[in-house]
């Protein structure tokens, strides 16, 4: 179903960190909201917090002003500071007057990849963010986006399987405007039994302990207690990761369009992202950080809200659902901290 980069001007790049012999499984994903100097010409934007158990920076000003003026960076929780520094250093080099006295508002969003990644290593540094920004700037319109276990998604786990980066897009017609809506997600949430694929709860074990598709263990039962056999299988790479099996976690959703929506209308779209998440089985637990950022690359034009928004609301749910499933579909197995193996989801 396409990619976020189907929206003209949007660029995406990853820097993936870690290799054999260490326990670093992390990285940086950079999204350029538009192909222009954002500090001089910000994009119109909105923020929606589904559940606020997260450590992002920069969202308060976006919510207040309805603008994004920097590249967006996705990364690991304990790398937020380094990512912020990387964006600031990049912009200081481009704008000699920045900081004298005017400042800038980098937007950095995160998920906790500590199950697979040794976060104490603080592997992400400012130079990795600068590298990702440079790579994104070198991309062309409509470029493909690498998905799964890459960049910020390298160490992420979704529904007990390997999660990470997923993306999707759709063409939307509302009777007046025809434009593109794109989504990019960073998935790091849920238990195996939560997962729903196109309406089927595939992770729910049947009476024989098999998943809905009859392929191996489906992780923990509804009571939250997996069997020793399932735990062993997960560590050997034969089933989902059920080690402690936290249901909470985080999902970052980015929505972009080239329709001339205003900040308030973008906020209405952002709030519908929860519909797409719910379709995949995202419960939004106590310790979840589900955050949505939406923007347009176009100059907003006034149009009174009405039924014409319905195709947009429907498209938001569709592209977010597909992006979450795509993050699982394209992920590759990863062996991380303490030898934990998280496999690719077999249902996709």
UniProtKB/TrEMBL annotation:
Composition bias type Gly residues, residue spans: 211-224
Start and end residues of each stretch annotated as Disordered: 200-247
Membrane-spanning residues: none
Claim: Hydrolase is one of the keywords in the record: yes
The entry's keywords: Aminopeptidase, Hydrolase, Protease
Keyword check for Nucleotide-binding: no
Pfam families noted in UniProt: Peptidase_S58 (PF03576)
InterPro entries: ArgJ-like_dom_sf, Peptidase_S58_DmpA
Low complexity composition-biased segments: 225-239
Any one GO molecular function term: aminopeptidase activity
The family this protein is said to belong to: Belongs to the peptidase S58 family.
Protein name: D-aminopeptidase
Species annotation: Ornithinimicrobium cerasi
